[in-house]
Amino acid sequence: MTSPDLVLIEQIGAGRLITLNRPEARNALSQALNRQLIDALAAADTDADTSVILLAGAGGAFCAGMDLKELAERGFTGTEKTENCIDRVSNCRTPVIGLIDGPAVTGGFELALACDFLIASQRARFADTHARVGIVPGGGLTARLAEVIGVRRARQMSGTGQYIDAATALRWGLVNEVVESAALRERGLAIAEAFTATDPATLAEVWQLYDAISHDQIAHAVDREAEINKAWSAQAAALADSTTAVLEHGRAQNRTSR
Question: Residue 256 pLDDT > 60, yes or no?
Answer without folding.
Answer: no
